[in-house]
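Practice record 12: protein with alpha-L-arabinofuranose.
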Amino acid sequence: MHSSQEPSIQDVTVTIQNIPKVRTIMRKNLLIVIALLCVSSVLLGQATMNAVVVHADAGKDTISRFIYSQFAEHLGHGVYGGLWVGENSSIPNTRGIRNDVVAALKTIKVAAVRWPGGCFADEYHWKDGIGPRENRPKMVNSNWGGVTEDNSFGTHEFMDLCDQLGCEPVICGNIGSGTVEEMADWVQYLTSDGDNPMTALRKKNGREKPWKVRFWGVGNETWGCGGIMTADFYANEFGRYSFFLKNYGRTPLYKISSGGLPEDCAWTETIMKKWKSVDGWLQGYLNGYSLHYYTVPDWNKKGSATEFTEKDWFRTFATTLKMEDLITKHGAVMDTYDPQKRIGLVVDEWGDWFDVEPGTNPGFLYQQNTLRDAIVAAVNLNIFHKHCDRVKMTNIAQMVNVLQSMVLTRDKDMVLTPTYYVFKMYSVHQDAVLLPVEVQSESCISGKDTISALSVSASRDKDGRIHISLANLDPEKAQNLRCEVKGTSASNVTGEVLTAATMNAHNDFGKPEAVSLKPFTGAQLQKGVLSVTLPAKSVVTLEVN
Ligand code: AHR
């Protein structure tokens, strides 16, 4: 059972986000804040050990908007039905792509979409997905339910989707069952304006001008569904492919290497070592390194997305918080070879993975999405922000109808998930400067899981507005906190909150929205100090100006 206790010295978690320049000052500030808090808590009779300091006049790293990227795989109804309905559908569409879904996704400012997989990428032959649709060959989607893929959504349709969303494409090429020539041709088809066979073919298929494509995955999970390779073998394969993927346009390719299993730092070392050996004479060989980590407390018993206990809640958060350790560990290996952080860590698959909804195809990975998922999203985004000097892109899995999605569709209907609302609320952090924060948080304990109640992130946007996002992971107890905003004369605070009465609150077809953003009135700002009451199980974003 949950036992969120009165704070004791053991139940307080202190996090100082590690900016060397301000570290010493921050430690001093934190001690003063803790001392003041203890005194004021005693005086006021309030038992809270939560304290946050935001250094609004500091910060040097930018939170890349590509942290807010998505993933759309040919999997279940992730593409077919969810994005693509075809031009003759009665569901309102533009050139076959659903208007409702595009409008919803534009609102959350999707920065990039990764496609066509995932595992599907390594059995996808792109030339089957171009030209007149009636002539496109069919294939079996062997990874995801063994269904027939008719290739009606191919390269042109995906690029149209990106145009409609106003986002950049991230193409994941086939290394497992493809060839170097096939992948090199795809790059030429998409990006070249020269006199060459693939440009001619693209023009014949109705697209005169090349597209702008820079993000390029060279295989996916090559330790597993991408070809069961060893790190050494893949490192050599990556080199072979990378060398022949040429830059045609003005934008050079940003080539992303597959990573190993989440904990496999030796894989990271192999790839980085090989990069180091060619760096200096081979330009643009490697730009990003992929990490996949799903929040799954037990792969043999994932559990329901909607029917869960408080113990499951805690297990989920304890598991999701490991993302920070993984980024730190892989980042440390990368630092050894690349202290200047030229290679980005690309977390191109992350999110909650639960059992499929009862009665749905087990191969389609269709799951509901609750307040728990929303708070998991907030926690992970806060972690990515904190490490934005190394983490340059992340892609939540997946955008529509698969795993932790933004929207769910059923025929003509669409539902916005609680996770969608976190992405909406957090869009203010895109391309903003990360602000150093000091966080002292109460802990909450359930069984063997102890987690910090608070997860915090702050940024300053290009207009000087400061945004502070705060999540309360405690499912039962509201958190009072004092948040000092240093280095600003701001006197006004506004905010939005996402919460609900139950842990498993979710939005469903034909029902009024149970979870959506509401104005937040639980924060007061006086002389640079915010007093905030965060409801239990909530996410809040404040703007101070
Ligand atoms: O997102 C579902 C699958 O999870 C992807 O296809 C694969 O890369 C990962 O194992």
